[in-house]
């Protein structure tokens, strides 16, 4: 299934400077005098959350909001490094396995409200970890750089294309660096469970000097500027925004399977303002909050027009919904993770340092 220019609705200043981490900070001052500040560590682009946060603030004018934008691995590592002194009231990340590990290791505070208690069991974990959006995982092509070739509709067709015209795609394929991106690691681990095709693709990527990146937006910039021809495993909300700006880009939800992850939020045990964090979580899961997230380019978790609580995406057909379950935890074991990364690196033949794009 080749997606249209705009994805369909179904798919569609630092707080603390650490030596190896960089963050961008956004501050929404309180509309009334107050000493309370809600701190959010987020691996979701601020532009997708700003409308929701502004609306939430209208109902809580005494609350200022500080959002720290990190990638998924940075968010996880920074929170653990800060320990009980972390100022974070809410952690938002699409690295489902890392978020679940934080819960499993005792870092999350249970939260129950009439809204969260109504959620289907598959979109929360022990009332400590809550999904609030879905995220399709797509392959993106610079149509101009494909030349005479049609867009491949499956991983097998993609592999055939790379083998047929390797000179065209050498140095022009990009995907996540799983050593630095938490969501990249999650997607690679899920791909590896779908059969042998992913391993063959990795070897093909490696033989063609694949370029590794930490973020979907970084890969999309390279695709739009013509440095890359193929981007593998990009997050759909960011793809949707790029397709609207760059007509040379085309997105594919592979016919063999399309991974779908969930963006998850948790309230840390150490949260200075857990009540305000719970209020924000409730708003994110409300009909109004879900509509605002959808309008900003994210895919809502719940059907906004449904009279009851109904998931907006069902795990059927070619959609493979990554389950929020303990099955995500084994590859977060230190030794298992080390082995998986070593195997991945060997397959992809990744150089010690990223080479500059051509």
Please characterize this protein's 3D structure.
The protein is α/β, with parallel strands linked by helices. It folds into two domains: 24-134 and 261-323, D-Maltodextrin-Binding Protein, domain 2 (3-Layer(aba) Sandwich), CATH 3.40.190; 137-259 and 334-348, D-Maltodextrin-Binding Protein, domain 2, CATH 3.40.190.10. 36% of the residues lie in helices and 19% in strands. It contains 13 helices and 13 strands. The protein has helices at 46-59, 72-82, 96-104, 114-117, 155-164, 166-169, 182-192, 197-207, 216-224, 236-245, 274-284, 287-295, 334-348; strands spanning 24-28, 37-42, 64-69, 90-93, 124-125, 129-142, 173-176, 211-213, 230-235, 249-252, 258-266, 299-300, 319-321. Strands 1, 2, 3, 4, 5, 6, 7, 8, 9, 10, 11, 12 and 13 form a 13-stranded mixed sheet that branches. The two termini are 30 Å apart. Keywords: Signal. Pfam families: SBP_bac_11 (PF13531). It comes from Oceanisphaera psychrotolerans.
Write the layout of secondary structure elements.
Layout: E1 24-28, E2 37-42, H1 46-59, E3 64-69, H2 72-82, E4 90-93, H3 96-104, H4 114-117, E5 124-125, E6 129-142, H5 155-164, H6 166-169, E7 173-176, H7 182-192, H8 197-207, E8 211-213, H9 216-224, E9 230-235, H10 236-245, E10 249-252, E11 258-266, H11 274-284, H12 287-295, E12 299-300, E13 319-321, H13 334-348
Parallel strand pairs: 2-3, 2-4, 7-8, 7-9, 11-13
Antiparallel strand pairs: 1-3, 4-11, 5-6, 6-9, 6-10, 6-11, 6-12
